[in-house]
Specification:
The protein is an all-alpha fold. Helix content is about 75%, strand content about 0%. It has one domain: Orthogonal Bundle (Helix Hairpins). It has six helices and no strands. The relative contact order is 0.11. The mean pLDDT is about 95.
C-alpha cells in the first residue's frame, strides 16, 4: 500500500464508485443510501473518537481513529461533489499565508 497522499485519491475513487451501489453489499454504499445527514453524523462521531484517542490513548489508536475519520470525510466529500483535488488546491492557495491572516481574511 502506498504511504503517500496518493492513497487518499485512490480511496476517494473507490468511495465515489460505490455511490448508487447495493447498500447490502457495501458499507460505503449503505452510508450513501442513508443520506448526507448520517454521513455528517459519522464524521462527527469519528472526530470525537480521534480527539479522545489523542487525549488519552496510544499513538496507534490516534492513527486508527484518524484513518476512520479520513474515510468518513472522503465519503462526505463524495456526497457533496467535492474532490480531493479541490481541497488540495485550497491548501495550496493558502500555502505561505499566515494562519492568522488567512482566518482574518475569511471574516471580510
Amino acid at each position: 500500500m502506498s504511504k503517500d497522499s496518493t492513497i487518499v485519491d485512490q480511496l476517494y475513487q473507490t468511495i465515489a464508485a460505490r455511490k448508487g451501489a447495493d447498500p447490502t453489499q457495501s458499507y460505503t454504499a449503505k452510508l450513501f443510501s442513508r443520506g448526507r445527514g448520517k454521513i455528517a453524523q459519522k464524521v462527527g462521531e469519528e472526530s470525537v473518537e480521534t480527539l479522545v484517542a489523542a487525549l488519552s490513548e496510544t499513538p496507534e489508536r490516534v492513527v486508527s481513529e484518524s484513518a476512520d475519520l479520513l474515510y468518513h470525510l472522503l465519503v462526505l466529500w463524495a456526497d457533496c461533489g467535492v474532490r480531493p483535488a479541490d481541497v488540495w488546491a485550497e491548501l495550496e492557495r493558502r500555502q505561505g499565508t499566515s494562519g492568522i491572516a488567512e482566518k482574518n481574511a475569511r471574516k471580510e
